[in-house]
Amino acid sequence: MRGPVDVAMPYPIAGFLPALLQEDDLLVRWTEGLDEVLAPVVSTLDCLDAYLDPWLAPPDFLRWLGDWVGAQLDENWPVERQRAMVAGAVAVHRLRGTVAGLRTVLELATGGEVEVIDSTGVSWSPRPEPLPGSLPPARVRVRVRVAEPELVAVHALDELCRAVVPAHVTTTLEVLDRDHLS
């Protein structure tokens, strides 16, 4: 967590005073007190671009940044995986509700190989009643292959799938060893 930090003021206020006022010892000491209070704020503003870049942001800031861009992070993931998830959030949102979007988000979340088997099938009608002989319910089967499947939180991946897949689609998730063949 963040805490008090000793940061020097890069732009001392006394340097901005007119020359006549810079000679006043009491005023200069008073502005030095303000420098001490404002230094962390100025430092943060000077480094704002680093806070907004997921590859440079402090690890404890990633969760907020992830919330800001709609990335769902698991606090148990390694920091580099969280950074990749935040960095890829825009691309994932663009593909949301598609097989490619589901594959991308799960690859970012696990670092593994993802296979998505979609039941496919689309129908439409200009009228709101059910179609005669309509298609069977939509289903998606997902296989995630990782090096160490026992370290993957399946419930967290399942929640991630439900967030990306359309609500009416039933999802089956399997986490397998990378060497497992099916």
Write structural notes for this entry.
About 40% of the residues lie in helices and about 10% in strands. It has about 180 residues and is of the alpha+beta class. It has a 3-stranded mixed beta sheet with strand order 1-2-3, with helices on one face. Helix 4 packs parallel to helix 5 (about 80-85), helix 5 packs antiparallel against helix 7 and helix 7 packs antiparallel against helix 8 (about 155-165).
Walk me through the topology:
Layout lengths: L18 H4 L2 H22 L1 H5 L9 H8 L9 H9 L1 H6 L4 H12 L2 E6 L20 E8 L7 H11 L5 E8 L5
Parallel strand pairs: 2-3
Antiparallel strand pairs: 1-2
Sheet/helix structural class: alpha+beta
Unreliable runs, pLDDT <50, ≥5 residues?
none
Global mean pLDDT: 86
Q: Kindly report how far apart the N and C termini lie.
A: 45 Å
In DSSP terms (H or I, runs of 4 or more residues), the helix count works out at 8
Strand content: 5-15%
Radius of gyration: 26 Å
Order of helices and strands: HHHHHHHEEHE
Largest sheet: 3 strands, mixed
Q: Could you tell me the number of beta strands?
A: 3
Give the overall silhouette.
elongated
Roughly what percent helix? 40-55%
> Order of strands across the widest beta sheet?
1-2-3
